[in-house]
């Protein structure tokens, strides 16, 4: 059952997701900070959430399912951010995801050598901070907040049964 409280929370989540993506693009393209591969992956849940919330408002069916998908999306965001934070802090080793730009683009050894000669941003290097916090650590907090909020929304659907 759709209610005004759910509507309000989803609009806030939509706004936060939109601001997160715009901020990431601003930091990358205007301020010139190159993101690592995990930073790029961390943007995906925000883009997906925007699409799902738009679908939520346009369809009157499967709203409970879309909320559940949003919970799973931000759980993925939390997990990736936690892993990335662990790499930044030295708890985890960088994986191959951090070093290679794209596995599909490497066709020849010349392409591989060219890619190795280019400066790539390491996942353990923090190039931008806000109030001393890396964007990854902020993403952990935001993702956790959104998961809790979405769980409350999902719980409301269970009450309305």
Number of helices: 6
Q: Using only CA atoms, what is the Rg? A: 18 Å
Q: How many beta-strand segments?
A: 2
Structural class, from helix and strand content? mainly alpha
Q: Largest sheet, if any?
A: 2 strands, antiparallel
**Outline:** elongated
Helical percentage: over 70%
The residue ranges in which pLDDT falls below 50 over 5 or more consecutive positions are: none
3D architecture notes:
By secondary structure, this protein is mainly alpha-helical. The chain has one domain (4-159). Helix content is 71%, strand content 2%. It contains six helices and two strands; from the N terminus they run αααααββα. It has a two-stranded antiparallel ribbon with strand order 1-2. Helix 1 (4-30) runs antiparallel to helix 6 (135-159). The longest helix is centred in the N-terminal third of the chain and has 27 residues, at 4-30. It starts with a helix and ends with a helix. The mean pLDDT is 84.
Please name the defining characteristics of this protein.
161 residues, mainly alpha, 2 strands
Task: Explain briefly what this protein structure is.
The chain is mainly alpha-helical. It has helices at residues 4-30, 37-58, 63-89, 96-99, 109-117, 135-159; strands spanning 129-130, 133-134.
């Amino acid at each position: 059952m759709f209610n005004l409280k759910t509507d309000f929370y989803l609009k806030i989540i939509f706004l936060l997701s939109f601001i997160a993506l715009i901020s990431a693009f601003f930091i990358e393209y205007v301020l010139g900070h190159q993101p690592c591969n995990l930073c790029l992956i961390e943007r995906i849940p925000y883009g997906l959430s925007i699409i799902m919330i738009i679908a939520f408002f346009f369809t009157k069916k499967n709203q409970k399912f879309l909320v559940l998908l949003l919970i799973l999306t931000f759980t993925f965001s939390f997990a990736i951010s936690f892993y990335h934070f662990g790499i930044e802090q030295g708890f985890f080793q960088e994986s191959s995801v951090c070093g290679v730009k794209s596995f599909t683009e490497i066709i020849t050894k010349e392409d591989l050598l060219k890619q190795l000669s280019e400066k790539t941003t390491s996942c353990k290097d923090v190039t931008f901070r806000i109030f001393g916090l890396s964007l990854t650590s902020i993403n952990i907090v935001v993702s956790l907040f959104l998961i809790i909020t979405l769980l409350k929304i999902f719980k409301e659907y269970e009450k309305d049964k």
